[in-house]
Amino acid sequence: MTETDAPAVLARGLTKRFGAFTAVDHVDLSIAKGEIVGFIGPNGAGKSTTIRMLCGLLRPGSGTARVAGYDVVEHPEAVREHIGYMSQKFSLYGDLTVRENLIFFGGLYRVPRRDIEERIRNAVTTAGLAGREDALVRTLAGGWKQRLALGCAILHRPPVLFLDEPTSGVEPEARRRFWDLIHELASAGVTILVSTHYMDEAEYCNRIALIDSGRIVAIGTPGELRQRHLGGTLYELECAALGAALQALKQAPGVIDASIFGDKLHVLLERAELAADLQPFLTRHGIGAGAPQELRPSLEDVFVRVVSRPAAAQAA
Question: What is the reported pTM?
Answer without folding.
Answer: 0.81
